Amino acid sequence: MNRESNTYTIIYASVMVIVVAFLLAFTSQVLQKRQQQNEAVDKMRQILRSINVFITNAQAESEFNRLITDSFVIDANGNVIEGDAFEIELANEFRKPETERKFPIFIATINGERKYILALRGTGLWGPIWGYISLCEDRNTIYGADFEHSGETPGLGAEINTPAFGREFIGKRINNEDGKFVSIAIVHPGRSAVGQDYVDGISGGTITSQGVHNMLLTSIGAYNNFLQNHETFREK
What we know:
The protein has one domain. 39% of the residues lie in helices and 22% in strands. It has helices spanning 6-49, 57-67, 90-93, 163-167, 206-222, 224-228, 231-235; strands at 68-75, 80-81, 102-110, 113-123, 128-135, 142-149, 185-187, 198-200. A six-stranded antiparallel beta sheet has the order 2-1-3-4-5-6. α1 packs across α2 (57-67). The chain is elongated. The model has no long low-confidence stretch (mean pLDDT 91).
């Protein structure tokens, strides 16, 4: 075939496109399992950080299996339903109508006491924010919290994923003195909130801090029917 002809050029280009597409598809398939494993390990570490356990990737699976003694899925009414808690992604659930949403709950047992771990999802300044928050056996007092983001400003809103910010939530209560759910307020440093526990927001990260405030209110609020109904867990 004449290498200077248009036909040769078209055939050569077509073959190269097919070969490159095949190689990309093959590479994607080979790496997909490893990517999924890495995502699972990262998720385990996030969940464990919400109960104040900080470990390496290599320790994640063993520590997760040791400390997370149960997990289940609830519906919007707080009823336990069939499902794998680890597979639930709130990003997908919040796209559904409220009545169709499902929420994961993880149970950690620490020194013989049960901790309830709830998933969080919200929006920061530049994109999604998410995390996990754990409650003590009273389903009211925060035991630990961990937050993540996809693109908040370094040194400002991105500070929500620091251990120091998460520690500020320990001991705070999500219900007021009358037992009504009020969440945790995120306030400007130096200010306070009336009728609810609060945490100082990130200096210079006002919009991200407001995003965390809204995320806590919406996400924990979605669990409120379960948290207020002590019989739900016993029936599982």
